[in-house]
Write a structure and sequence with these properties.
There is one protein chain. By secondary structure, the chain is of the alpha/beta class. It is built from 9 helices and 5 strands; from the N terminus they run αααβαβαβααααββ. The chain has a 5-stranded mixed sheet, with helices on both faces. α7 (142-156) packs across α8 (163-181). The longest helix is centred in the last third of the chain and has 19 residues, at 163-181. Mean pLDDT is 91; it is low at 1-13.
Amino acid sequence: MTQSKTAPPDRTLDTPGTRRGPAEALADLMAGNRRFVAGRPRYGHHVAEAAARSGGQEPYAVVVGCIDSRVPLEAVFDQNFGSICVVRSGAHVLDRSVVGSVEFAVSELHASLVMVLGHERCGAVAATVDALRTGSRPDGFMGYLVDQIAPAVTETGLNDEQVQAKALRRHVTRTAEQLRLADRLAQAAAAGRVQIVGAVYDLDTGVVDLL
């Protein structure tokens, strides 16, 4: 049943060493999402493909996403082993290790696209809204997540009826803006070697919409 819905691989774009510019990288990533939404994935993540790519990696994109278990990024974008780097944290909150990982993917692995991907009904955003409304900041490192998401919530407005959905989009935009300010990424963007974009994943439809 699954095999009948799987399109044959396009070996032209799937060949190791095939470099994509930022625009082509974005187009390829979004094409993968369309295959996913249509129920016609190209890649099934077979162990043979893992072995075939074990000798090295040349990813064309890095996706910074949330830890949410409902958003498996390689599946959402229908990508094969070695095609994309994935960095995940609660509500894609940045810290030094996350930014450093993105910089490594761009400067050392030559990824030409960075996508910050948020998703609808994000639990970390909802927790931040609740914390700001009640004045009760979580203890420990969870408090750091709230602190980093809070500006997007306050900019949206706690009294907005759609505060969670709007704050999520604002948080995605803010995260992308922060990455553009990182020295290595700013230099790569200025040279035209990388594009940094934000997007939101719809849990119900599987569609990724660019912001």
